[in-house]
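Form 12-C: Joint structure prediction
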Amino acid sequence: MQAQIMKANLHQDPFVAPKLISAFSICHQMPLAVKIFNQIQEPNVHLYNTLMRAFAHNSQYSAAFSTFFDLQENVLFPDNYTYPILLKACCSGGPSHLLLRQVQMIHTHIEKFGFYSDIFVPNSLIDTYSKCGKLGIVSAMKVFDSMPERDTVSWNSMITGFIKMGKLEDAHKLFDKMPYRDMVSWNSMLDGFVKAGDMNSAFQLFQTMPDRNIVSWSTMVWGYCKIGDMDMAKFLFEKMPVKNLVPWTIIISGYAEKGCAKEAFSLYDRMERAGLRPDDATLISILAACAESGLFSLGKKIHLKIKRSKFRHSIQVCNALIDMYAKCGDLSDASSVFEEMTERNVVTWNTLLQGLAMHGNCEKALSFFSRMTREGIEPDGVTFVSVLSSCSHAGLVDEGRHYFSLLKRDYGSALQVEHYGCMVDLLGRGGHLKEAFELIKTMPMEPNAIIWGTLLGACRMHSNVELAEEVVDRLVQLEPKDAGSLAIFSNIYAAAGDWDGVAKVRSKMRDVYKQPGASSIEIDDEVHEFRVSDTAHPESSRIYHMVDRLKQHLEQVGYVPRAHC
DNA sequence: ATAGGGTTAG
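Section 2 - Result
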């Protein structure tokens, strides 16, 4: 109705069309936005920019680009707004491996048209370049250096770019050099320390800052949650003067990730009593934390809340639900969430597929994959990781080879290191060590530590000491600090009865601390965590008694344990 | 330009 009234004014008032286009863009109604645009006989640069921004907002980056070319064909010149919008469009929805090249192309355009002098343009170039990985940050720095004048935004963009890349020292250098620091500069630096896990430096900076806002406080709370110091996180959370959904989300997810159901739930109630309604990010964060720690009870309660809210229609929220159920081992509820969804994306399919694969339902996973292709869903790299690892767990070597060649033939652009990892695992487990080794040699990318580690695991399984030695050499080059691979290696020597070899490896391992793995289970709202040789649990002796009984039973039915040291 | 967000092999 309102739209009709506005349409009537379309040609009288030049501000109606941009408003309509933006409105349709927010509601993801791009065809309608395009229709409005086409009704204007002589669109000006402003209107082109509006349409481009609308496409960018809807992740239609190629449409944004062709709008840009249309603009030039109509003998119009891009203005200072055009390029930042175009740069933003590249980041939203464009393929990430082409991002750098796109940005370079736009950069060339900018230099040709000479809009470089407006500080807004190079600032967004810096920002976009720093999203393009290592090469991008170099170009960003070049732009930064070539600027005749810089404002605080230029400095801040450069600093956040370095922090995103994990280059804390470079960021710090710029931070020290900049003539004026605002809230964003301080907060970015704080974020840098937090991301590096250095909470001591972060706290120091937090205290030195001339001023602190809600972002600074939230960053601190988040940092302490990440290192598991919930006391400190809670202390700062209670102390912060103003709270919004973000810190609430952080603290609730923090407790959920630690497995503290009671604390997480009482905080959730407090948040609602404070009059804050969770948004999709809150729900997704909490569900992800539940999935991580296996906090089924809280996840289920969140599901009940979602069922009664508008978020039951959100694809992302439902994906998080499926993942939570799958990771907690409840595949039937995971499937029902999937079936009840009216709209799905690849991630939805991948999440359930991965859940099926993870719990060893290989046949179900493979038939789910064929249902996926039947329903015309384009599988991506993640899909194939699940498919291949399913084959690997079920020992289906031929099927694995088949899917791998399918991947290479039809979805070559999705081929990743991970797939080689799956194939090496599959072939290695099946005893085809040589074939696995040859496959690694043909890889189009550099094999990483995971690849070699997988092959090493297979060498242990089949007691192949010679190949293992060769593999360990490469592994130590790639990850000299990794004790896990050395542990496997010493097991190989142990299995072969080579105790000198074991001693040699053990001495290498001495100064490398291995973070022990842990498993956890939730019973009656409480999470129980277990590590190797752990006697911390109050019912420890009964648990070990049960484990012994299971071992006996396994040995009765023919299980032979592998060598352990 | 700064805080929370879905799927990835051993």
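Section 3 - Comments
The radius of gyration of chain A is 28 Å. Chain A is about 70% helix and 0% strand.
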